[in-house]
Each structure stands twice: as structure tokens, then as C-alpha cells.
Amino acid sequence: MDDFPAFMKHSANAIASHQQSVGVEGYVFDGIDGSQMAVFQCAKNSSSNEHVHDFDEYFLVIQGEYTLGIQGRKITLKPGDEYHIPKGMPHDGSFTAGTRTIHAFGGKRADRRKPECA
Prior knowledge:
By secondary structure, the protein is an all-beta fold. It has strands at about 25-30, 35-40, 45-50, 55-65, 65-70, 75, 80-85, 90-95, 100-105.
């Protein structure tokens, strides 16, 4: 597969564009405990700036390549690789076009895009 199934990309779950890197399309799903899961698909080579979360983050690379920057190291993750980032840990990343990832967040990470006016 080179894309997430259509039901995972419902527009009602689209992440607000200001909360993701340029060229990235993301969709969020909420847990009853305030946690979230999100899927991201990268249309072009890009990166995310260093940032910190007030909750743990876990992610799995499904396709492509994601280079995680954490504690002064660069860790290249390929399909099947996973990583846990403890809350409060500064991190950044870069990724290649076609990269797809699944993330679990121990808190609220993303807001949904506002529906377009008809």
C-alpha cells in the first residue's frame, strides 16, 4: 500500500494545517482518556522544527524514511521501526516524500481543520 485507506482520511479528522509541517497531510483520532492517535503522509521532503510535548509520543514508520533528532543524535527510522519519545524531551525530524507514519500521543496533540464554509 502507498496510501492510507479512505476511511482513515475523512475530512472531519483532518489536522489543522498550522499544526503540521509543509507538505504533510495528517488525520487525528481521539481516545476517551484525552490521548490521540494520528496518521501522517508526507508529499515532499520536509522537516519539523524542534518542539516539546507535555505527554509521551510513540510512532511507527509505515513507509519511507524519518530521521529523528533527539538528544544531539540523528536516528534514521525506516519501515517497521518505532520510537518512544518521553514527555518533555525536545525533538525534531526530517522525512522523505512518500513517508507515512502512525503516532500515539499521551495527550491532545492536534486540532482538527475547521470545515470550509459552503
